[in-house]
Amino acid sequence: DAGVTQSPTHLIKTRGQQVTLRCSPKSGHDTVSWYQQALGQGPQFIFQYYEEEERQRGNFPDRFSGHQFPNYSSELNVNALLLGDSALYLCASSLKGGNTIYFGEGSWLTVV
Amino acid sequence: QKEVEQNSGPLSVPEGAIASLNCTYSDRGSQSFFWYRQYSGKSPELIMFIYSNGDKEDGRFTAQLNKASQYVSLLIRDSQPSDSATYLCAVNSISGTYKYIFGTGTRLKVLA
């Protein structure tokens, strides 16, 4: 049973650049959420996608955008990167109406 | 007041002892409660969830929920060095929202 997969696992970007992170949900899941986890903090909700639409959004600026594809996979895009965007970006999948989310291994983003 | 609060620790317990991890939350409308374990440099892994007041046991783990006191805890019996990790408490708030709110986590150290 394939779990949640994310790519890339690590990447380094320069301030002002743009980044795209990718996620494939757990087999059978149709809902994808993205979280940001800064060092020493708990994960913070960015947004959730279902049926290719953003269903709910957390307190993140418009520089953070996403997309969900018909096969339920998802992308997180961050524009105009800031040093403070350095964090572990976690994708989590779940079933519509299901209340339990399962995380992927995450993408470590360092902005220099 | 933070929405989900946890003592950051570290909580140190000897091998074989019971580790008790605590979490309080501010939103009385919260309905679902989750415990995740996160090893250093890794993504959070779901341990268990609880929805109703009382205790829920799963192997060496017991989750306890008291909605009147807005308090949820995790007991780990017969603690092992491999249990050393950060434990994150997460709350899914008012029905109809899809985001989890996480605490900052409690770092547990089990001493051999």
Features:
A: 112 residues; 7-stranded mixed beta sheet; B: mainly beta; 5-stranded antiparallel beta sheet
Tell me about this structure:
- The complex is a heterodimer of chains A (112) and B (112).
- Chain A is 0% helix and 51% strand.
- Chain A is built from no helices and 11 strands.
- Chain A has strands spanning 5-7, 10-13, 19-24, 31-37, 44-50, 53-57, 64-68, 74-78, 87-94, 102-103, 107-111.
- In chain A, strand 7 and strand 8 (74-78) form a beta hairpin.
- Chain A starts with a strand and ends with a strand.
- In chain B, strands 2, 4, 5, 9, 10 and 11 form a 6-stranded mixed β-sheet that branches. A 5-stranded antiparallel β-sheet of chain B has the order 1-3-8-7-6, with no helix packed on it.
- In chain B, 38% of the residues are buried.
Helical proportion of chain A, percent range: under 10%
In angstroms, what is the radius of gyration of chain A?
13 Å
The H-and-E topology of chain A, N to C, reads as: EEEEEEEEEEE
What class, by secondary structure content of chain B?
mainly beta
N- to C-terminal distance of chain B = 36 Å
What are the segments of chain B in which pLDDT stays under 50 over at least 5 consecutive residues? Answer: none
Instruction: Identify low-pLDDT runs of chain A.
Output: none
Cα end-to-end separation of chain A: 37 Å
Largest interface chains and counts: A-B, 23 and 22 residues
- Give the overall pLDDT of chain B as a whole number: 93
Element-by-element helix/strand order of chain B = EEEEEEEEEEE
Helix content of chain B: under 10%
Number of strands of chain B: 11
What's the Cα radius of gyration of chain B? Answer: 13 Å
Shape category of chain B: globular
- Round the mean pLDDT of chain A to the nearest integer and report it: 94
**Mind describing the biggest β-sheet of chain B?**
6 strands, mixed
